[in-house]
């Protein structure tokens, strides 16, 4: 089954929604209003509840008019025209948007949820859409709209995801099929953020300390082992060897904390890492033979004997 919408509705016209509109209208030949003589025009419409309410809302309207996108401030009859809906509101408003849009959707219309939400929140958004006869598609945006625009990479999950991804890639997006389980794309993004945002916070502590000690270039230059094997494999290696070396690394983090304090840096992340390693030490999982398990075995041991909580 192919996907060939003639009218696309954007819910939210902030950074994400307006970037998508620019990609569709500016590069893909879509536009916002029908013209005389058009038999089946391809149009983009937008709904943003902030429209004209403040300076930001005024700017939204101005950008929509520049792109020839019809924009409204309420969920109304215009939404009934949409064959495909792209929800790009803030995650905290995702369920509100889905609930408001659902009664107005065409039967069979695809609802692409780009909101930054958890897997469970994605399930909550999906319920009203599917109850109204819509087709919910879970999308995780893995890049940034500010620099990449419509080309921000996306992971896509849903029941009939393949034709949706084909349409997206034909119309300027950079989309990849993740699987058929809605919510899995959102979950991947959230779990990835544990690593990426964690590294960001660690980078703040480490690089500020390094700069204050006059050794920033040297610290940055000693990361070659990560470059050699790639970040994902490097993290996997750390998880595997954590089983064997948690005690030594826990003791080291105590000294790391002292290093930061001596430099005037509060070791927020460092202290948390120290506590995390101590949890593993207290669980007593270090193998007597000192053998490093494979990744699957290491994760199972950590899940059942250290993290627990299920």
Describe the structure.
By secondary structure, this protein is of the alpha/beta class. The protein folds into two domains: 7-187, NAD(P)-binding Rossmann-like Domain (Rossmann fold, 3-Layer(aba) Sandwich), CATH 3.40.50; 223-307, no CATH class. It has twelve helices and eight strands. The chain has an eight-stranded mixed beta sheet, with helices on both faces. α3 packs parallel to α4 and α10 (231-262) crosses α11. The longest helix is centred in the C-terminal third of the chain and has 32 residues, at 231-262. The chain is elongated. The two termini are 40 Å apart. The mean pLDDT is 93.
What's a quick, concise take on this entry?
With 310 residues, the protein is α/β, with parallel strands linked by helices. Helices cover 52% and strands 13% of the residues.
Entry keywords:
310 residues, alpha/beta, Rossmann fold, 2 domains, eight-stranded mixed β-sheet, 8 strands
What would you say the CATH architecture of the largest domain is? 3-Layer(aba) Sandwich
DSSP, total strands: 8
Strand content bin? 5-15%
- Assign the CATH superfamily of the largest domain: NAD(P)-binding Rossmann-like Domain
CATH class designation of the largest domain = Alpha Beta
Structural class: alpha/beta
- Count of separate DSSP helical elements: 12
Largest sheet: 8 strands, mixed
What number of domains? Answer: 2
Helix-strand layout with pairing:
Layout: E1 7-11, H1 15-27, E2 43-47, H2 55-66, E3 70-72, E4 84-87, H3 94-101, E5 110-113, H4 119-131, E6 135-141, H5 145-148, E7 153-158, H6 161-170, E8 174-179, H7 184-212, H8 216-221, H9 224-229, H10 231-262, H11 268-283, H12 295-307
Parallel strand pairs: 1-2, 1-4, 2-3, 4-5, 5-6, 7-8
Antiparallel strand pairs: 6-7
């Amino acid at each position: 089954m192919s996907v060939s919408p003639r009218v696309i509705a954007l819910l939210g016209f902030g950074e994400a929604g307006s970037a998508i509109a620019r990609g569709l209208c500016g590069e893909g030949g879509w536009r916002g209003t029908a013209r005389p003589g058009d038999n089946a025009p391809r149009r983009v419409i937008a709904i943003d509840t902030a429209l004209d309410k403040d300076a930001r809302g005024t700017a939204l309207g101005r950008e929509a008019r520049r792109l020839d996108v019809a924009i409204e401030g309420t969920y109304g009859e215009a939404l009934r025209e949409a064959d495909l809906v792209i929800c790009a509101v803030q995650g905290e408003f995702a369920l509100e948007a889905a609930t408001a849009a659902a009664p107005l959707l065409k039967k069979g219309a695809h609802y692409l949820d780009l909101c930054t939400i958890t897997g469970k929140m994605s399930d909550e958004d999906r319920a009203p859409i599917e109850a109204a006869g819509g087709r919910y598609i879970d999308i995780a945006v893995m890049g940034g709209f500010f620099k990449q625009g419509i080309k921000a990479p996306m992971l896509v999950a849903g029941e009939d995801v393949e034709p949706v991804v084909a349409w997206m890639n034909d119309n300027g997006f950079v989309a990849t099929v993740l699987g058929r389980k809605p919510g899995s794309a959102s979950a991947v993004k959230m779990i990835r953020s544990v690593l990426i945002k964690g590294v960001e916070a660690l980078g703040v502590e480490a690089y500020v300390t390094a700069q204050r000690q006059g050794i920033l270039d040297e610290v940055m230059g000693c990361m070659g082992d990560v470059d050699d094997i790639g970040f994902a494999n490097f993290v996997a290696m750390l998880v595997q060897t954590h089983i064997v070396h948690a005690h030594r690394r826990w003791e080291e983090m105590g000294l790391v904390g002292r290093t930061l304090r001596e430099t005037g840096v509060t070791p927020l992340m460092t202290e948390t890492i120290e506590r995390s390693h101590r949890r593993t030490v207290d669980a007593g999982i270090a193998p007597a033979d000192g053998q490093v398990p494979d990744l699957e075995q290491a994760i199972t041991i950590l899940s059942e004997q250290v993290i627990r909580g299920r």
